[in-house]
Amino acid sequence: MTRARYQQISLEETPYYHCICRCVRRAFLCGRDHYSGQDYEHRRQWVVERLATLVEVFAIDLCAYAVMSNHYHLVLRVDRGRADAWSCREVAAQWMRLFSGPPLVQRWLRDETCEAETLKALEVVEQWRCRLYDLGWFMRCLNEHLARRANEEDGCKGRFWEGRYKSQALLDEKAVLGCMAYVDLNPVRAGMAATPEASDFTSLQQRSRAVQKLPSTDKLPALLPMVDAEHIETD
Predict the structure, then answer these.
(1) Do residues 196 and 188 lie in contact, with contact meaning Cβ atoms separated by under 8 Å?
(2) Is residue 145 part of a domain?
(3) Which of 9, 12, 77, 121 would you call most buried, defined as having the most Cβ atoms within 10 angstroms of its Cβ?
(4) CB neighbour burial string for 70-100, b if at least 16 within 10 angstroms, e if fewer
(5) What is the percent of the chain with per-residue pLDDT over 90, rounded to a whole number?
(6) Is 120 exposed, middle or buried (0-12, 13-18, 19+ CB in 10 A)?
């Protein structure tokens, strides 16, 4: 029997989660559909660009990702402490990078509200704070955006994703590193690339190119560093 999503996410147990989402009827999200001949390769960059935007907005870090032909994998870390440390105005600024926000909050930001209106505006902002470290809202902002773009391109309506995303808690460092390796090796395992470094649209390729200082014209998401700054020795 499946468990409710809120029962699967427990920040007291772990901030790390492996998330997977698959297209409806295993249809092609990206790459070439061998049956119809349609080429959706360009959609992979949609996923990467949207991730780049979301990790700038949410208090959620991206550890690893792999964009496959009909699904994608993410390893995410929820950083509630970062969201709690933001001021109310910072929270509003972050949220309104994605959504316009109600007129009440916009007037509060301009210092045009009375005391009662200010209290109501702050109540709304606190709801936004909770959403900014909520895995469900992160995935919603990713999947709805991609579904709208794909349906608009295909000239159709209806469900694009097979269902809600699947998530698995990663309870210790070994589980996190093992899952990251699993995600990055997915294209090799699927025969889409000969080596991990040649696997397009994966975090491993992005980290490899960064180490080699290779330039990129594409918008890439910020990745959680593999080593904390205090553990890096300097000359």
Answers:
(1) yes
(2) yes
(3) 121
(4) bbbbbbbbbbbeebeebebeebbebbeebee
(5) 55
(6) middle
